[in-house]
Amino acid sequence: MKGRWLCIGLLLWSALAGAAIETYGFRDDTERARFQALTRELRCPKCQNQDLADSNAPIAGDLRREIQRLMAAGQSDEQIIAYLEQRYGEFIRYRPPFEGRTLLLWTLPVLGLLGGAGVLVVLTRRRRPEQGLSATERERLAALQAEEER
For residue 70, which of 29, 41, 38 has the smallest C-alpha distance? Predict the structure, then answer.
């Protein structure tokens, strides 16, 4: 008897979970792709590390509905982004525009990679055993390495 009630409870629970799925009416696949691109490009204000498409936060659902409403009203992607940026700040964008204020944000990863590569070059050059050896010491080292290879 307990098993039957458990099954009924699980079925009801799954029905409630299915009711939480959001559906939007789009005119065509182009509009659907545009909506998906916009929700992937914009960040959830609450979650901060998720885009609007992936976030389960209530505000993300509100913003998805707002984007769909603005699209239905005929606004362009730039207008929608500007509207949301005005309300939530530049932080809502995953990729802020490349300008003077964001120059460090865009160049810091490249500078970090170049710095890391420079450190690796310096470290590998310091580890060469031949460096700083006299000619006789190099010959002896070469002989020892040749002996070791046999």
Answer: 38
| 52: nearest Cα among 41, 33, 65, 39 | 39
- Alpha-carbon span 19 to 143, nearest angstrom: 77
Which among 75, 80, 103, 104 is positioned nearest to 93, based on CA atoms? 80
- Please state the pTM of the whole predicted model: 0.55
Helix (H/G/I), strand (E/B), else coil: 90: helix
The DSSP symbol for 94 reads S
What residues in the chain have per-residue pLDDT under 50? Answer: 19
pLDDT tens per residue, range 12-44: 666 555 545 566 666 778 888 999 999 998 988
Rounded-to-integer distance, Cα 111 and Cα 97, Å = 19
β partners of residue 42: 93
**What residues does 43 pair with on adjacent strands?**
51
DSSP alpha helix (H) spans, the chain: 2-19, 29-41, 58-72, 77-88, 103-126, 135-149
Closest to 96 measured CA to CA, from 19, 57, 42 = 42
